[in-house]
Amino acid sequence: MARLLITGGAGFIGSHTCVVLLEAGHELLVLDDFSNSSPVALDRVQELSGRSLQGIEGDVRDAAVLEQLFANAASAGAPIEAVIHFAGLKAVVESVVDPLHYWDVNVSGTRALLSAMETHGCRSLVFSSTSTVYGEPDSFPLTETTPTDPIHPYAQTKLAVEQMLSALASTGDWRVASLRYFNPVGAHPSGRIGEDPLGIPNNLFPFITQIAAGRLEKLRVFGDDYPTPDGTGIRDYLHVMDLAEAHAAAVDHLLQSDAPLSLTLNLGTGQGLSVLDVVHGFEAATGITIPYEVVERRPGDVPKLEACPKQAANVLGWSAKRSLADMCRDGWAWQSANPQGYREAP
Ligand code: UD1
After folding, report:
1. Tens-digit pLDDT profile for the chain (346 aa)?
2. Catalytic residue numbers?
3. Cβ–ligand 1 contact at 183 (below 6 Å)
4. For the CA of 219, the nearest atom of ligand 1
5. Residue 8 C-alpha from the chain's centroid
């Protein structure tokens, strides 16, 4: 069992990962600025796992906060052994409008974190990367050696961090894993934690659950003239609990490694689903009809992204186990119990 720092641990993927890590017996410090997350998520993580964690409100770019965090842990005789770094920005359009902000938070933030880690001899890091680094690929499935082609600042910042990590790993001593997420959806099966986007959701799945909850009226399907079987975009959706378990496997793998390590792993199911597959899957799992209309393509969308997840299975012994029905049932359990997300929480 290890003492871990989780940056961005109150967010969607971070909070689910914290539950899995606490249940596995790890000790957690969570650094989050709550700019796109709620402290209530951390209360519920503790309630679900039956264990406590130490939450710290702060910005990952703040060198003084990081220094204090590592120094305090060390002087208490329980130094931080590894970091899982979720904290960052992820809205593609926002990144096009304000690229400097994305480079600042995503790249400079990670650099500040790595400096603090280096100072304190903590050299194991799991990083949240994204399948969007592949750009608009034309051959499938996507393996980790498929050429990258980041087409917007968000993807560019994620790839820049991957490159910073592999450069660091090549100096020796570091153990790093960049996890390229495909499309995480769903929620913890309890319905106590889940995805809580600010404002109107950009992403398909929370848009659907908010329609089901009566917050939104109708789904706009962005294009049905893609070169896919039903004409709508294909993505590799995976259950957030599967993704959380992959993080636990990755951090264990790094901590158990005797040698320096630099890993890049795709995390998906390997089974692409169209927009209409998701709509109909949600309807079948919940009995709720999702009204939709087909509109123009969304600029920047690609026809298809689908992982080859074999490398993660080979290296970590991990594969996604949960079905689309599980993703829909659990996502709906969260949204129906928390129609306004964490904002209605007592
Ligand atoms: C998007 C981002 C990606 C980011 C991820 C974070 C873009 C171009 N990509 O991925 O970089 O890592 O979110 O979670 O923004 N769709 C609709 N109607 C909607 C919403 C989506 O038809 O209201 C369709 C899209 O056209 C796409 C699919 O649903 O085919 C999935 O979209 P979304 O959930 O936004 O994810 P990505 O675009 O894959």
Report:
1. 999 999 999 999 999 999 999 999 999 999 999 999 999 999 999 999 999 999 999 999 999 999 999 999 999 999 999 999 999 999 999 999 999 999 999 999 999 999 999 999 999 999 999 999 999 998 999 999 999 999 999 999 999 999 999 999 999 899 999 999 999 999 999 999 999 998 899 999 999 999 999 999 999 999 999 999 999 999 999 999 999 999 999 999 999 998 999 999 999 999 999 999 999 999 999 999 999 999 999 988 999 999 999 999 999 999 999 999 999 999 999 999 999 999 865 4
2. 154
3. yes
4. 23
5. 10
Q: How far is the CA of 204 from the centre of ligand 1 (A)?
A: 6
Nearest CA to ligand 1 atom 29: 204
Q: Using an 8 Å Cβ cutoff, are 240 and 186 in contact?
A: yes
Domains by residue range for the chain, with CATH: 3-337 (3.40.50.720)
**88: its two tokens:** 């960052």
Q: 6 by DSSP, 3-state: which?
A: strand
Give the H or E element holding residue 16.
helix 12-23
Q: Whose CA is nearest to atom 16 of ligand 1?
A: 204
Which of 131, 221, 224, 301 has the most ligand 1 atoms within 8 A of CB, as the residue to mutate?
301
Within 10 Å of residue 256's Cβ, how many Cβ atoms? 8
Angstrom distance (rounded) from CA 41 to CA 152 = 30
pTM of the model: 0.97
Give exposure, 17-52, as e/b (b: 16+ Cβ within 10 Å). bbbbbbeeebbbbbbbbbebbbebbbbbbbebbebe
Which residue's alpha carbon is at the smallest distance from atom 18 of ligand 1? Answer: 221
- Rounded Cα distance between 54 and 77, Å, is 15
Q: How far is C-alpha 44 from the geometric centre of its chain's CA atoms? A: 18
Comparing CA positions, the residue from 34, 41, 129, 36 lying closest to residue 86 is 129
